[in-house]
């Protein structure tokens, strides 16, 4: 009876671990994407700063380019930069939370396996 309870507890912990690992990978990918977006906005902004104010600047919309004032393009890039920084900050908080959850799940799994060494042997036998 206790063996069956431990087995179901293991399956629940395993499911939570898989779910948390997936969420963690997703957040890491989102952080990577936002950092790339931030870098792109920063580099574009730096290039725009070097241009004189009377230079014709164009904004890409799909396959077309539309004449835009330099100031409008700079504001847009600055907005992208600040939005990316805010998103990165939020995502890093989520990542921290998920890492704490993962550590908790690992501790629960470790405790379960220490309570029932026969369960650990069964799991090892299944993975071989």
Summarize the structure in words.
With 128 residues, the chain is mainly α. 83% of the residues lie in helices and 8% in strands. It contains 3 helices and 2 strands. Strands 1-2 form a two-stranded antiparallel sheet. β1 and β2 form a beta hairpin. The longest helix is centred in the N-terminal third of the chain and has 49 residues, at 2-50. The two termini are 26 Å apart. 5% of the residues are buried. The mean pLDDT is 91.
Features:
128 residues, mainly alpha, 83% helix, two-stranded antiparallel sheet, 3 helices, single chain
SSE inventory with pairings:
Blueprint: H1 2-50, E1 57-61, E2 64-68, H2 70-115, H3 117-127
Helix pairs in contact: 1-2
Which strand order does the major sheet show? 1-2
The shape is rod-shaped
| Sheet of most strands | 2 strands, antiparallel
| Poorly predicted regions | none
Distance between the termini: 26 Å
Going by helix content, strand content and strand pairing, the class is mainly alpha
Order of helices and strands: HEEHH
Extended strand count:
2
Q: How many DSSP helices? A: 3
């Amino acid at each position: 009876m206790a063996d069956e309870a431990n087995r179901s507890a293991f399956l629940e912990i395993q499911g939570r671990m898989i779910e948390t690992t997936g969420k963690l990978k997703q957040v890491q990918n989102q952080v990577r994407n936002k950092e790339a977006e931030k870098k792109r906005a920063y580099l574009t902004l730096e290039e725009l700063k070097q241009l004189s104010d009377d230079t014709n600047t164009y904004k890409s919309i799909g396959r077309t380019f539309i004449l835009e004032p330099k100031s409008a393009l700079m504001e847009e890039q600055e907005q992208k930069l600040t939005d990316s920084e805010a998103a990165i900050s939020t995502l890093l908080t989520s990542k921290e939370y998920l890492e704490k959850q993962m550590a908790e799940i690992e501790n629960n799994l470790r405790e379960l396996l220490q309570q029932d060494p026969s369960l650990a042997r069964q799991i090892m036998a299944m993975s071989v």
